[in-house]
Design brief:
Blueprint (H helix, E strand, L loop, with lengths): L2 H18 L1 E4 L4 E4 L2 H8 L9 H20 L5 E13 L2 E18 L2 E10 L5 E10 L21
Antiparallel strand pairs: 1-2, 3-4, 4-5, 5-6
């Protein structure tokens, strides 16, 4: 894809993303925040490595579907949690503390795509949108080929 089209698509998606702010999730019984963490994760893998442009564009295209899934979901399909040392605020100071990190995976079929949405929660903070990925393709989309590795099954990376 040409750079100008990529940049334009990314900029338009970012503007739409900023308008979302938060969405109520029936399964979590809480509002899911759409902060910069989720958008940055669409563009970058962990450790600041940029995703390939086709992978970014696919995820950007699926953002509106992610909102639909979060609004409608009542069942969790994947869950992972672990404790890790993280830099957190504690009485106005930033210190390293052991913190629980949770991932919630929701899967739905929308417009012929099986889509997975990942919500992340750190400690006692609000759950926030982390990622959206095509999980597999159904009949309508089956013939499309992916020439890049888009997802690994690791909720932190995907």
């Amino acid at each position: 894809m040409e750079k100008p089209n990529y940049e334009k698509t990314k900029d338009n998606a970012f503007k739409e993303y900023q308008q979302i702010e938060e969405v109520y999730c029936p399964n979590l019984k809480k509002k899911v925040v759409f902060n910069s963490n989720g958008f940055l994760h669409i563009i970058y893998k962990s450790k600041g490595k940029k995703r390939e442009e086709p992978a970014q564009l696919m995820r950007l295209k699926l953002l509106s579907k992610a909102v639909e899934i979060i609004k409608a979901t009542t069942t969790i399909q994947e869950y992972d949690s672990f404790t890790k040392e993280m830099l957190v605020k504690d009485h106005k100071l930033r210190v390293f503390k052991l913190t629980k990190v949770e991932y919630f995976g929701y899967i739905a079929i929308i417009s012929g795509w099986k889509i997975k949405v990942i919500i992340k929660k750190i400690g006692n903070g609000s759950p926030f949108f982390w990622s959206v990925i095509p999980n597999w393709v159904t009949n309508k989309k089956r013939d499309q080929k992916f020439t890049y590795k888009n997802f690994s099954g690791n909720l932190e990376e995907d």
